[in-house]
Amino acid sequence: MSASPKPARHEDIRTITTTAELAEFCELAKAQPYVTLDTEFLRERTYYSKLCLIQAALPPSSAKGEGGLAVLIDPLVEGLSLEPLYDLFRHKATVKVFHAARQDLEIFFHDAGVLPDPLFDTQIAAMVCGFGEQVGYETLVKKIARQPLDKSSRFTDWSIRPLSDAQAQYALADVTHLRAIYEFLADQLNKTGRAPWLGEEVAVLLDPETYITRPEEAWQRIRTRSGSPRFLAVVRELARFREAFAQERDIPRARVLKDDALIELASTKPLTEADLGKSRLLLREARRGEIANGILAAVKAGIESKDLPKPAPDEPGRPGNAALSELLRVLLKAKSDEAGVAPRLIASAAELDAIASGARDLPALHGWRAEVFGDDALRLAGGEIALSAHNGAVKVVTVAG
Questions:
Q1: In a domain, 182, yes or no
Q2: pLDDT tens, 41-57?
């Protein structure tokens, strides 16, 4: 691992404000094995994230980890085209390095339909390398780059110009330290032979389906207590209306209808604006006008629908599966400790419950996860193996046929 790149001084900060400057930087990046990237954005008042700043850094220019051009790219400047950056994203010879890339990639996909390939996500790589679950950038900076990280500008409104020196330094730190983190984690993955594991995870981030939200599927993300098909039909239609309305007007879902209000309306099934006025949870602006009309139409469609959703099978924790779910949790902990991988990266609690209930088409049972945990999980569920405590550790024991 090379020495940690030194953070940029004030006089080193370069902000790209023209397409020509961006093209020049991206040509330099194409000659490098990797480039580190990050974004700053706002989403409080919109459905889609508003891109406010892009940070990028090239590898260190010396064996001491010094230098290596780092820049800020200002997408809010009128006339600046990001096409040179997107061309870099398509350039296969340069790895694009992000930390916790999903939200960054969602922005680029919705803005231009492009995703950076090849991609390296240091958060996922760190979980594969045993740094814990959802490990934060600050933690990796301290443990790998061994540098302090100033987070005083964390809650900045990045749409305001000009940026202060502190904001610029904060933003650049998100890509300058990332170089040392990437080099360390890439080396670890190569040594352990786990680079293909990261590849499986990155494939999900590079799948356009990851970033497409279809209104007709939005209801599946809403947690409800009732499994009544008619109730779920109304939930489906209300969620469909809310998602489409929010997307078309680029406003947050909660500005249209919050989840608790949606569930209340699915239960009470209002038919008139007067009925909407009785809601305890509905926003005032949703009791009349376009939103009110949309809500009433959605409720009516749900009531009259002949295509009723089916309650989700294999409900977590249902009688007969709770004990097996607990055994699977113990197995997961033992296997994750043995492999040095964050448990949550292997399987979620919901997946364990689903396995216990008989589900088999799950990520935890395929690919590298099957090798580490899934195969034994199925054997445990099938009564082929048991768990035993030995010298304070959990061991897998084959059950005699």
A1: yes
A2: 999 999 999 999 999 99
